[in-house]
């Protein structure tokens, strides 16, 4: 759910718009997906020079539409969350200790994903849980604001959407289509992915797992991957019960 703005005032869109106040709006209480075409994206964001890259962003937004097609999720956003994820971005940018604490959390998640024994997995899971609770407690003491509800929600929205991008890109090496340059000069018939059996080694994957300003994308994504590894069923009713979300499901299934 993002909109990119450039210095020349031209915008490219990759977002789902919603309104909870304007009853005349086309997207009142329901998501409307707005996506720039691949040529526009490439013109103003040159890094996106292949249709395959653009396609992953489109799928990310399609998945948001799926998430918010669940009345429980969109109602929870309107009635309980009420704030955009930009609030979390500002907290991250304004507090160096907060950023370092998140790097510690994310590193524990990555170590757990890469662990090879049950004992080491449990150690890294405990490190993650302790680091997260410590960060949240410190921020609450510092600001008198409890991040938990808002953070859990946006992690549950953006983490699985990034997970869908990951799953799609990981399957690109299995797809072949007739290339029609006249229709799409930026389509490379998935050539960059041919023979790439380990998508996780590619630079674009590595960027997905590094902590950044919108950190809830990363921690949510890595939590999905870790729960896959641990065989935790988190997908079945994730958006029908938004009060629980990824993190509470994880805690419930890892408590000892």
What does this structure look like?
This protein is mostly helical and 256 residues long. It has one domain (2-254). The protein is 57% helix and 6% strand. It contains ten helices and three strands. The chain has a three-stranded antiparallel β-sheet with strand order 1-2-3. Helix 5 runs antiparallel to helix 6, helix 7 packs across helix 9 (215-230) and helix 7 (148-170) packs across helix 10. The longest helix has 26 residues, at 118-143. It is globular, with a radius of gyration of 19 Å. The chain starts with a strand and ends with a helix.
Residue-averaged pLDDT? 87
How is the main sheet built? 3 strands, antiparallel
Q: What kind of oligomer do you see?
A: single chain
Q: How many β strands by DSSP?
A: 3
Helical run tally: 10
Q: Largest beta sheet: what is the strand line-up?
A: 1-2-3
What percentage of amino acids are in beta strands? 5-15%
Helix amount, in percent? 55-70%
Query: Radius of gyration in whole Å, from Cα?
Result: 19 Å
SSE class:
mainly alpha
Number of structural domains: 1
Low-confidence stretches: 2-10
